[in-house]
Amino acid sequence: MRTVLTFGTFDVFHVGHLRILERAAAMGDRLVVGVSSDALNIAKKGRAPVFPEGERQRLVAALRCVDDVFLEESLELKREYLLRHRADVLAMGDDWLGRFDEFSDICRVVYFERTPAISTTAVIEKIRL
Ligand code: CTP
Hints:
Elements: E1 3-8, H1 15-25, E2 30-36, H2 38-45, H3 53-61, E3 68-72, H4 78-84, E4 89-93, E5 108-112, H5 120-128
Parallel strand pairs: 1-2, 1-4, 2-3, 4-5
The structure holds cytidine-5'-triphosphate.
């Protein structure tokens, strides 16, 4: 059983989110997703997510390609989360390129190309206009 782990906010769910989750799932037998907490998102991106953490977790957990979700409460706990969930692969978008190479001692680290021209921020802007 090969477990793949990925992390993200997944707020205002869009096709870029779906594509990274599908590609991550294809790297193994089981995909576990760490969904960033509201507090972490405020610290990381300077704004509260549109959808609260419980709803974002439920939406991600309901996807066919996702086997399990948990709440990511701190960026500092990545190693602990990887060990706790017995991750064989850490999959991240290439906006994080190189930033997680330090974990290659405990799992394989892969970066996927971001889907062009879409982001939560862009969707929020589009709706605002
Ligand atoms: N992602 C992607 N392609 C996009 C947008 C996001 O592959 N067009 C990936 C990110 O690389 C990350 C995951 O989806 O691994 C979750 O990203 P998240 O930060 O939740 O989404 P963004 O749309 O980037 O959000 P924001 O605009 O708030 O930064």
